[in-house]
Amino acid sequence: MKKKIRFSLIAFCLLLSPIVYSQENNGDLKKILERKNSVDLTIGGTGLFLSVNYSRILAVKSNYFINTSVGIGTVPFIGGISLPHQVTFNLGKKSSFLELGIGGNFWSGKSNSSGYTETINSYHISPIIGWRKNFKNNLVFRAYANPLIYLSGEHFLENLSVTPFLGVSLGYAF
Prior knowledge:
This protein has 1 helix and 10 strands. By secondary structure, it is α+β, with helices and mostly antiparallel strands. The chain has a single domain (33-173), classed as Porin (Beta Barrel). Strand 4 (81-91) and strand 5 (96-111) form a beta hairpin. Strands 1-2-3-4-5-6-7-10 form an 8-stranded antiparallel barrel. 24% of the residues are buried.
């Protein structure tokens, strides 16, 4: 009887120890990322030229988190409106993260060919690899590479099916 109680107590402690340890790790990253919303201004990236984006952190674990983002942007010289969106997986423990994900962009603009204006649309998808830094003063900096892969619609980049692209953003977490 004593052996069964002792065995049960030891087994319970062994099962509980990884849970306690993981909670300790979660608290550190969760404290750094306690502000889950952010607004940023992006140059390049999935917004094509200049975009304003809203981001939300969905899940925070011991050494990674998942982030989603939607925005609205503009493209000078070509014109039109871009609607960027992305989902990223961010890996790291403190305030610096490797960012991997996928994004997309719907672009709608005007064409002035043959004497009249017509609306043209385009959709691009982008794999994302980059670096994210969360500062103590709630600023968020991101730098990433995202080649644009043309999927559908009128293509505004002269017959290129894959266009190398970079993005830099600065935002504020709240």
